[in-house]
Design brief:
Helix content is about 80%, strand content about 0%. By secondary structure, it is mainly α. Helix 1 packs antiparallel against helix 3 and helix 2 runs antiparallel to helix 3.
């Protein structure tokens, strides 16, 4: 449980850092979308971040089940 929470905080920090200092990537695309008022790109980036978060969470849940079979 703690690993899932810490990874979600780390992912949030990664997104914030990428939007501030990147010159390429999804964070940079979000910054450009804000500058040029492209809400379609913004929605796409939010969906990509959401899918990325879900995939990471599912991977961590699978690792928890494999490493700790006594927990439900």
């Amino acid at each position: 449980m703690a690993l899932r929470v810490s990874l979600s905080v780390a992912l949030t920090g990664l997104i914030a850092a990428e939007q501030i200092g990147a010159t390429e990537g999804i964070g940079y695309l979000v910054t450009l979308a804000q500058q040029y008022y492209r809400s379609d790109y913004m929605v796409l980036c939010v969906v990509v971040y959401a899918v990325l978060g879900l995939v990471i969470d599912l991977a961590i849940r699978g690792a928890e089940k494999a490493s700790m079979p006594w927990r439900r």
